[in-house]
Amino acid sequence: MRLWTAIFLLITSVTWAQNYENRWIGHFSYVSVKDISASNDKIYVAAENAVFIYDPYTRETKTVSTVQGLTGDFITTAHYSQDFDLLVIGYENGMIDVVNIEENRVLKVVDILDKQTIPPDRKRINSFFENQGNLYISTKYGISVYNLNRLEFDDTYYIGDFGRQIDIKQTTIIGTNIYAASAQDGIRRANVEDGNLIDYQNWTTIVNGEFKAMEKLGDELYAANNNNVILRVDPNGNTTQVHSFSQNVIGFKRSNDLLTITTSGSANVYAPGFIPTAVINNVQGYDLNLLSGSVFDNNVLLGTNSDGLLIVPFGTTKAEQVLPNGPIRNRPFALDATPGQLWVAFGETDIHFNPFPLREYGVSRLKDSIWNNIAYPDLRNAVNGEPTNLMKATINPRNPEEVYMSSFQKGLLKIVGDDPVVLYDETNSPLTKEGDAGIRLFGSEFDRQGNLWIVQSRTDRGLIKLSPEGQFRKIDLSNNVDIGREIALTKLTISREGYVFFGGYYSGVVGYNPETQAFNKIGENAGSGNLPSANVRALAIDSQNRLWIGTLRGLRIMNSPGSFFQPGVPDSQPIIIIENDVPQELLFQQSITAIKVDGSNNKWISTASSGVFYLSSNGQETLLRFTKDNSPLPTNNVQDIAIDPESGVVYFATTQGLVAYQGNATAPKDNLDLLRAYPNPVRPHFSGNVTIDGLTAQANVKITDITGNLVFETVSQGGSVQWDTTAFGKYRVRSGVYLIMVTTDDSSETKIAKVMIIR
Question: Which fold would CATH assign to domain 676-757?
Answer without folding.
Answer: Immunoglobulin-like (2.60.40)
